[in-house]
Design goal:
Strand content: 15-25%
Distance between the termini: 65 Å
GO molecular function, one term: ceramide glucosyltransferase activity
CATH superfamily: Spore Coat Polysaccharide Biosynthesis Protein SpsA, Chain A
Main location: membrane
Keywords: Glycosyltransferase, Membrane, Transferase, Transmembrane, Transmembrane helix
Strand order of the largest sheet: 3-2-1-4-7-5-8
CATH class: Alpha Beta
GO cellular component, one term: membrane
Oligomer: single chain
Order of helices and strands: HEHEHEHEHEEHEHHEEHHHHHEE
Helix content: 40-55%
Pfam families: Glyco_transf_21
Number of domains: 1
């Protein structure tokens, strides 16, 4: 019975790995949006900013150079003394013809500092179409067309997972290994299966739809706005869609401690919002499959050479996926993927044993009884 169970698990793990990569590879070949004459409807982009981030000049300029006939960009900053404000002003001076403004202030409507930051932009938005777009995204000129390309009458939110690019150093490679061929791949697969969930890097919605769902406050029902968006869509019989190809997040240099803290934070948020799905995460990655294979080798059911063959097939598929999408790929990417898989069980355990985390200097909690309000200043 044990041999049968181990063999079945190993087969299922390999099948899931190869099938998920195959379906995401097939998705890449779908035609993209065809630019059409403007329909007269504009879009408001809410861009929350906090501090000077890696590649910020490029990411800010990217949202000011969209190939779209009618849109405004509202850069939302919580504190008047944030160094990003003069930085933004300097860039905006290069684009005097763009409809872009900096809004400063903080209104506490939730424990989520991002929502508290963007609520002023939400109230000031001119258009019904609203996109919350993180400041560290490097968006293509077709950004808004890509979003509208997948929207239909049932869609409440259009989102995109980030993919790590412009990596500098091994820790950045490691973060890209988490973001790209692991997290983005599984999120794109979920979209293929019709069970996509929202991702906070880009959340596109209609104000009129949000009013039916309770307004912007509906996104404050969970510690993470993307989890709240997913649940709100399901509650009202709507769905979440992901763009055809994810948008880039230039990583630059990363410290391992920062990569670790981000993964633990996201793990605790997933555990809090979707505990059953988070429980299943322990069965992903190469470690469980390798453990089953090692046990079968020890029992004499598999030859030892099947272990390196399994590893080769497993990671070669990830490498091909990264190459096909032009994500960072190379020997260091493969090493980072191995280290990532060794860390996944540790991140999973940390997701269960803790409930507090820090986000941009704000102490937060996933535990309702021990909730920690973010440290903000109202201006």
């Amino acid at each position: 019975m044990m041999i049968l169970a181990l063999s079945a698990f190993l087969g299922l793990a390999l099948f899931a790995q190869m099938t998920s990569i195959g379906l995401v590879l097939a998705r890449r070949r779908r035609p993209g949006p065809v630019p059409l004459p403007g329909d007269g409807e504009g879009t408001t982009i809410l861009r929350p900013c906090c501090g000077i981030e890696n590649h910020l000049d490029a990411t800010v300029r990217s949202v000011l150079m969209l190939d779209h006939p009618r849109y405004e960009v509202l850069f939302c900053v919580a504190r008047a003394d944030d160094p990003v404000i003069p930085f933004l002003r300097g860039i905006l001076a290069d684009y005097p013809d763009r409809d872009a403004r900096i809004l400063v202030g903080d209104e506490r409507i939730s424990t989520n500092p991002k929502l508290n930051n963007v609520v002023k932009g939400w109230n000031a938005a001119r258009y019904d179409r609203i996109v919350m777009s993180d400041s560290n995204l490097l968006v293509p000129p077709s950004y808004l067309d890509e979003i509208e390309h997948v929207r239909d009458a049932r869609t409440a939110f259009v989102c995109s997972p980030p993919v790590g690019t412009h990596v500098e150093g091994f820790s950045a490679e490691l973060e890209a290994a988490f973001l790209n061929t692991y997290q983005a791949r599984w999120q794109l697969l979920a979209d293929e299966l019709g069970i996509a969930f929202a991702q906070g890097k880009t959340i596109a919605m209609r104000r009129s739809d949000m009013e039916d769902m309770g307004g912007l406050a509906a996104l404050a029902a969970e510690a993470a706005e993307d989890a709240a968006a997913t649940k709100a869509a399901h509650r009202f019989g709507r769905r979440v869609r992901l763009v055809r190809r994810p948008f880039a997040q230039p990583l630059g240099y990363r410290r391992f401690a920062d990569v670790w803290r981000r993964q633990v934070r996201w793990a605790r948020l997933r555990r809090s919002s979707f505990p059953l799905a988070f429980f299943a995460e322990i069965f992903t990655g190469f470690v469980p499959a390798a453990a089953a294979a090692i046990a079968l080798v020890a029992m004499g059911e598999l030859d030892f050479w099947t272990l390196p063959l399994l590893a080769f097939v497993w990671y070669a598929a990830e490498y091909l996926l990264a190459r096909a999408y032009r994500w960072p790929a190379g020997p260091s990417m493969l090493l980072a993927a191995v280290v990532r898989d060794l860390l996944l069980p540790c991140v999973w355990v940390e997701g269960w044993v803790g409930y507090t985390f820090e986000w941009r200097g704000n102490a937060m909690s996933t535990n309702d009884d021990k909730e920690l309000l973010p440290k903000t200043t109202t201006l």
